[in-house]
Each structure stands twice: as structure tokens, then as C-alpha cells.
Structure to design on (316 residues):
């Protein structure tokens, strides 16, 4: 039986990955800060090793004896500005995973959770004129993105030197469908950067379609958590795929102007288009994931939105 170590296996993404791996017949070991297996209702066969990524001997204990490592544990916002902690967990922690793989020699594959922040999506300094594919130069604009890119490079070099394969998966902004209205369409998310004329009389709960500062349509790319999990599990199962960096994103991009009026009318909220400083359009190219992994994301923006609106109505 193949044993997979999932670091961060009780997190938002990890718990679904663990469930799916168990269902697919893998033996799963989770490495986490605390044991939440029972609270999350995960299968009793799931083994938990508690420890901290920052402590090498903890990581070594977790890696010893496994065949595949799926490295999801990391910190990110709200720790964005705690850059020393970000470095310790996300860079030193990944170094510990790689060093343990080298020392133990048993794990032959590493699947790693990287991010669209390596391209600097949304508020990048650069304009993107075509969908972002994996060959494009990366220009992260924050330490989270820089450190994830450093991870990708470390992984590639260690894998080559020490004879294991890897799949670096770049997740485009992941969220549960039920969160998308609050995270994306509420005025409060943009308030500080809305141009002053468009901000007048706006209530934080109002529904908005953010536009580029020049008034052009703004689009970006998100992903439903379940589609990210599909991609991760495919990367683990697909033994023929190795030494690759692959984008994971929704099947279509989000163009706010197409949806904001529907959201507002269903919620009975006022809505308007607002120009936002600093935004840049971007969309993901997911052809590589489809071709190499057989990735087939189910959650289009429309499907996510319908689910989000249904959960808003239930919550009313
Ligand atoms: N959420 C997003 O939008 C997004 C986007 C791109 C990439 N990612 C990446 O995907 C991965 C999973 O994200 P998530 O949303 O499930 O995050 P999450 O915070 O829900 O889960 C991360 C897990 O890692 C564990 N962890 C944190 N620090 C640890 C440490 N020092 N030692 C051991 N375990 C530790 C936490 O307990 C947590 O359960 C992360 O690597 C993240 O950087 C997330």
C-alpha cells in the first residue's frame, strides 16, 4: 500500500485531500501542529504525527517510511507582514521537508502547494497581455510569493540531485464557493483603493464590480477548493507525471461586470461599478494541467456563484 504524507493535512485544502486519498486506497499520514483528526471526522486509519515544520527532527519523523510527500503546510495572510515567521515556516520548513526526504531516501515524489502569487496576480507591477502559463517569467510582489518561488526552485534542485520527482502546483486564489460573494463582491474589500469619486455614498456591504482605474473591465481567476483538491490528488496518483510546475485554476475567468448585478438583485443590495487603483487583469492558462494530469475543473464562476447565493439565502 502506498503511504502518502500530507503536511498541513487538517487545513482547508488538506482535509479534503486526505479524505480523497483514503477513499482511493492510500495509507495517509498527516503532519500537523495539533491532532484534529477526530474533530474533522477523518477516517480512523489516518495516522497523525504532531510537530512543527520549523523543527527538523519532527519533520524527519513524519517523512520516514512514506512513499510520497504532499507538502501543503504553510502560513500566509494574516501572517503576511510577519516576514520572519513566514520565512521560518515557508522556506526553512520546506527545506526541512527536502532535507528529510534526502536523509530518509524512501519518498520518491513530492507534490507541493505553490501559488499564483509567484506571478503577482491582481495587483502586479506588470501588465499581462496573455493568459499566464507556466513558462512566463515570475515577478512576485510580496514575500509570500517570493518565498513560494524559492520553494519551487529548492524543490527542483533537490529533486534532481537526490533522485525524486516533483509536481509544483500553482493554485490560483482558492476559496470555497460559499465565500465568494463576501470575498469578491462586497465594497469593503476595495474601499481604500476605490477612486474617491466612486467611493461617495458607498456602504461597505454594497455589491460592486471592481474596474481598472481607467474604467476598463477587470477580470481575474479564482478556484474552488474542491477543484484544487482534484488537481492535487491527480498529481499524486499520476505516477508518470514528474518534475513539472503546473497551474490549477477554475475552468473560466471571473469578469465582475457579468455577475455583479445578478448578485445584487438576488441579495436585494445596491450595486455599482467602481474604479480601483492598482488592479491589473490576469487569467490562468490551465492547458498543461488538463493535458498532463487530466484535470477537469467542475466549478465555473457561474456554478460557484449559484452555490454562494444559495448559501447566502440559507443564512438570511
Ligand atoms: N488559500 C489560498 O488562497 C491559497 C492559494 C495558493 C496557495 N495556497 C497554499 O495552499 C496550501 C494549503 O492552504 P490552505 O488554504 O489549506 O491553508 P490552511 O491554513 O487552511 O492549512 C495549512 C495547514 O498547515 C498547518 N501548519 C501551519 N504551520 C505549520 C507548522 N509550522 N508546522 C506544521 N503544520 C503547520 C496548519 O495547522 C494548517 O492546518 C498552503 O501551502 C498555501 O500557501 C493557498
Amino acid at each position: 500500500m502506498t503511504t502518502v504524507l500530507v503536511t498541513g493535512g487538517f487545513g482547508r485544502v488538506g482535509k479534503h485531500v486526505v479524505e480523497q486519498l483514503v477513499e482511493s486506497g492510500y495509507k495517509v499520514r498527516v503532519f500537523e501542529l495539533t491532532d484534529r483528526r477526530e474533530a474533522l471526522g477523518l477516517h480512523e486509519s489516518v495516522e497523525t504525527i504532531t510537530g512543527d515544520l520549523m523543527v527538523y527532527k519532527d519533520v524527519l519523523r513524519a517523512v520516514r517510511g512514506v512513499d510520497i510527500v504532499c507538502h501543503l503546510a504553510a502560513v500566509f495572510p494574516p501572517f503576511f507582514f510577519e516576514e520572519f515567521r513566514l520565512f521560518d515556516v515557508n522556506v526553512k520548513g520546506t527545506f526541512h521537508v527536502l532535507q528529510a526526504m534526502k536523509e530518509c531516501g524512501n519518498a520518491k515524489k513530492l507534490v507541493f502547494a505553490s501559488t499564483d502569487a509567484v506571478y503577482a496576480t491582481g495587483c502586479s507591477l506588470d501588465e499581462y497581455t496573455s493568459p499566464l502559463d507556466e513558462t512566463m517569467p515570475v515577478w512576485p510582489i510580496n514575500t509570500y510569493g517570493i518565498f513560494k518561488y524559492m520553494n519551487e526552485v529548492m524543490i527542483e534542485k533537490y529533486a534532481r540531485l537526490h533522485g525524486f520527482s516533483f509536481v509544483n502546483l500553482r493554485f490560483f486564489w482558492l476559496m470555497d464557493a460559499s465565500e465568494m460573494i463576501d470575498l469578491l463582491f462586497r465594497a469593503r474589500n476595495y474601499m481604500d483603493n476605490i477612486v474617491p469619486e466612486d467611493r461617495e455614498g458607498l456602504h461597505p456591504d454594497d455589491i460592486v464590480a471592481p474596474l481598472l482605474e481607467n474604467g476598463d473591465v477587470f477580470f481575474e481567476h479564482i478556484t474552488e477548493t474542491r477543484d484544487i483538491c482534484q488537481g492535487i490528488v491527480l498529481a499524486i496518483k499520476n505516477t508518470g507525471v514528474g518534475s513539472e510546475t503546473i497551474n490549477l485554476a477554475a475552468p473560466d475567468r471571473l469578469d465582475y461586470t457579468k455577475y455583479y448585478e445578478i448578485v445584487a438583485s438576488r441579495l436585494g443590495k445596491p450595486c455599482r461599478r467602481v474604479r480601483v487603483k492598482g488592479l491589473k487583469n490576469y487569467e490562468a492558462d490551465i492547458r498543461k494541467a488538463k493535458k498532463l494530469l487530466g484535470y477537469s475543473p467542475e466549478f465555473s464562476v457561474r456554478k460557484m456563484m449559484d452555490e454562494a447565493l444559495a448559501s447566502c439565502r440559507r443564512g438570511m
About this structure: The chain has two domains: 3-174+222-250+282-298, 177-219+253-279+308-315. The chain has ten helices and 13 strands. The pocket of nicotinamide-adenine-dinucleotide is lined by residues 8, 10-14, 32-33, 52-54, 72-76, 89, 93, 113, 115, 171, 173-174 (CB under 6 Å). The first strand starts at residue 3 and ends at 7.
